[in-house]
Amino acid sequence: MTLRQTGRPYVRPEPTKEDLEYAPLAALDVSKVPDWSKPEGKEELVNDLRRAIEEVGFFYVVGHGIKDLDVRRQLALGDAFFKQPLEKKLEHPCDFATGRYFGYRYPKETYGDTGIRSGIQMWNTPKDTPVLADEYLETDLLKPHREEIKSFQEQVHARILSPVLKLFALLLELPETYFSEPHAFDKASEDHLRYMNYSPHTPEEYAQINGQMVKVSVLTILFPQAVSGLQVQTAPGEYKWVKYIPDHVVVNTAEVLTYLTGGYIKSTVHRVIRPPKDQANIDRLGLLYFSRVANDFDVAIAPSPLLQRLGIYDPAKVDPNPPKGLEWGRERVKHTHLKQVIEVNTPVEAFKFRDGQYTVNLEYASPAPDTILKPSSAIAV
Question: Where is the Non-haem dioxygenase N-terminal domain (predicted)?
Answer without folding.
Answer: 29-110
